[in-house]
Amino acid sequence: MNDAPDTPTPPEGLPEQLVSDLNALTTEELRKTIIHAQELLNVQDEAPSPIEPQPGDDIIRVTEHDTYTEVVKRVYCNEGCDNCPHGTYLYHVTQERHPDGTETAYWRFIRDVELDDE
Ligand SMILES: [Zn+2]
User: Fold this and answer.
1) What is the model's pLDDT at position 116?
2) What UniProt keywords apply to this chain's record, in alphabetical order (predicted)?
3) Strand pairing class (58-64; 103-112)
């Protein structure tokens, strides 16, 4: 499962031990790691962190605004997870443009959303 030919270069500053631990994980474990890391960020209410949308995400609603995109989604991590789906969460997604022309999406967790409010 971990025989992908092109291993991505980890971000600068990521501890080597963590990188090697992550490389040893299965896809399911990686998804859970992302969710747990995201939940830790939510708790700490830190600065926006770059996250790529996951294929298993259940996008409920996308609303374009002038400076950001509002996204409401649920997150599935794995079959057999008692807590799936996680959410519903509201995010503000902004695009940060780099000097080389590339863009990075920053998903900022705003709050839990009750779908019954809709
Ligand atoms: Zn789950």
Assistant:
1) 66
2) Plasmid
3) unpaired
The Å distance, Cα 100 to ligand 1 centre, comes to: 37
Q: How many domains, in total, are found in the chain?
A: 1
Calculate how far, in angstroms, residue 55's C-alpha sits from the geometric centre of ligand 1: 14
- C-alpha span between 63 and 69 (Å, rounded): 6
Alpha helix stretches (DSSP H) within the chain: 16-23, 27-44
Residue 96 within any structural domain of the chain: yes
Give the angle subtended at the CA of 80 by the CAs of 53 and 39, to the nearest 5°: 45
The pLDDT tens digits of the residues spanning 69-109 come to 999 998 888 778 888 888 899 999 998 888 888 888 888 89
How many A from CA of 79 to the centre of ligand 1?
8
Beta bridge partners of 26: none
From the CB of residue 63, how many other CB atoms can be counted at a distance below 10 Å?
10
